[in-house]
Amino acid sequence: MSRRKRNKVESEDKAEIDLTPMLDVVFIMLIFFIVTASFLKEQSININVPENNDQPPPPDAESKNILISVNASDDVYIDQRRVTISAVRSLIAQKSAENPEGGVVIRAHEQSSTRTYVAIADAARSAKVFNVSLVPYAD
Q1: How many angstroms separate the Cα of 22 from the Cα of each of 13, 25, 27, 28, 110?
Q2: For residue 121, which of 103, 138, 100 has the smallest C-alpha distance?
Q3: For strand 81-83 and strand 66-70, is the pairing parallel, antiparallel, or unpaired?
Q4: How confident is residue 90, by pLDDT bands cut at 50, 70 and 90?
Q5: How confident is the model at residue 48 (pLDDT cuts 50, 70, 90)?
Q6: Contact 69, 104 (CB under 8 A)
């Protein structure tokens, strides 16, 4: 064989990579992780689901919450009547005296200003009603 062919054959032999040791290491790592993994028994919560009966629950006699609506142009409505911001505190105090457990639910349009919500929330707090919730809505 000529020297050129011998060098070419040797270079092809050198280009091979033996993957056996790498596969052995990967296999040993896999066994290690499987053995050291902690297998926990999943805990579940027992829930008592009520039976389905055809009778709906009795409706509340009165809603305990005071509903205040604010539209996109910052008009304030209590019981479908338009009121001014200055009258909101007295109306909340009046309705709170009728239902002391109730809170204030402000149903405000997405386009209404934050200033109106803050004014209503401040009026509710000054009327000693501290449970104030905001419910945004869109058209």
Answers
A1: 19, 5, 9, 10, 61
A2: 103
A3: unpaired
A4: very high
A5: low
A6: no
Beta strands in the chain (DSSP E): 66-70, 76-78, 81-83, 104-109, 132-137
DSSP codes of every residue in 3-34: HHHHHHHHHHHHT----HHHHHHHHHHHHHHH
Question: Cα(3)–Cα(22) distance, rounded to whole angstroms?
Answer: 34
Amino acid 16: pLDDT: 76
Cα–Cα nearest to 71, from 3, 136, 1: 136
- Which CATH topology does 66-137 take? Nucleotidyltransferase; domain 5 (3.30.420)
* In contact, 86 and 72? CB cutoff 8 Å: no
Q: Are 70 and 105 in contact (CB under 8 A)?
A: no
Q: Does the global pTM surpass 0.90?
A: no
